[in-house]
Amino acid sequence: MPILAELRAFLRASLLEPADEPEATTRRRRIVTAITLLAGALTLGWALTIRPGDPLFYPATLSIAAIWLAGALASGPLRLGHGRTRGGGTSRAVLQGLILGGALLAVFLAGALLVGRIDWLRGPVDALLAHARFGSLPVVAAITALNGVAEEVFFRGAVFAALPRRWRLAGSTTVYALATAASGVPLLVLAAVALGALTGLQRRATGGVSGPIVTHLTWSLGMLTALPWALDIGS
Fold first, then answer.
1. Per-residue pLDDT tens digits for 58-74
2. Residues of the chain where predicted confidence (pLDDT) is lower than 70
């Protein structure tokens, strides 16, 4: 069928065909990323203990983004990469990121319909979303976007490049999930695994972080605005 053929071509171009990327792992990159991981995970754990509505939450979460960005830039050169189109051309993978991020968002919103019925799963999610309800949604959205960019630059930029080629996809996804585990929110860790695997595949296919950044922002900002609605429908 034409639709299935188009889908296969899209997935092959956007996710499945690795880019020709030189090996650039250095001892410095590995040391810097390890230090950054520890600092970022500890700061994330502390930030999510702050009560909703407390003004301290904003500088705390901004400091997380600053740590990821500083660590990524200090680790060594980073690449934006190029997405490949079905016709064999190249792009910055913006459209691919919007489609992939939107697809992942749809999966999570469908899952939220079930989570809304399970109190022990919904409780930690409601606590996390309370920062948007009790604070300024535009400010939280801006911080969410900044953190999304910083996470991709660090995890799909620095961490991905710091690992041996054969372990880059699985390793960067695992490291991202472990860093997120400091939040103490099980569904956030699950989200990190799904998002990390998707953007990791995209990073491998494009050779850079521009596509993964668009995917991450599409998913995270969509979740911020639509997840409360999906939870309420499921409850």
1. 999 999 999 999 999 99
2. 1, 21-25, 86-89, 234-235
3-state secondary structure the chain: CHHHHHHHHHHHHHHHCCCCCCCCCCHHHHHHHHHHHHHHHHHHHHHCCCCCCCCCHHHHHHHHHHHHHHHHHHHCCCCCCCEECCCCCEECCHHHHHHHHHHHHHHHHHHHHHHCCCHHHHHHHHHHHHHHHHCCHHHHHHHHHHHHHHHHHHHHHHHHHHCCHHHHHHHHHHHHHHHHHHHCCHHHHHHHHHHHHHHHHHHHHHCCCHHHHHHHHHHHHHHHHHHHHHHHHHC
Q: How far apart are CA 45 and CA 207, in angstroms?
A: 31
Query: Which residues are CB-neighbours of 137 under 8 A, at least 6 positions away?
Result: 224
Q: Would you state the pLDDT for residue 89? A: 66
Cα 65 from Cα 85, distance rounded (Å): 31
pLDDT value of position 146: 97
Domain boundaries, the chain: 23-234
- 149 with 217: CB under 8 angstroms? yes
- Over the range 200-229, which residues count as b (16 or more CB within 10 Å of their CB) and which as e? bbbbbbbbbbbbbbbbbbbbbbbbbeebbe
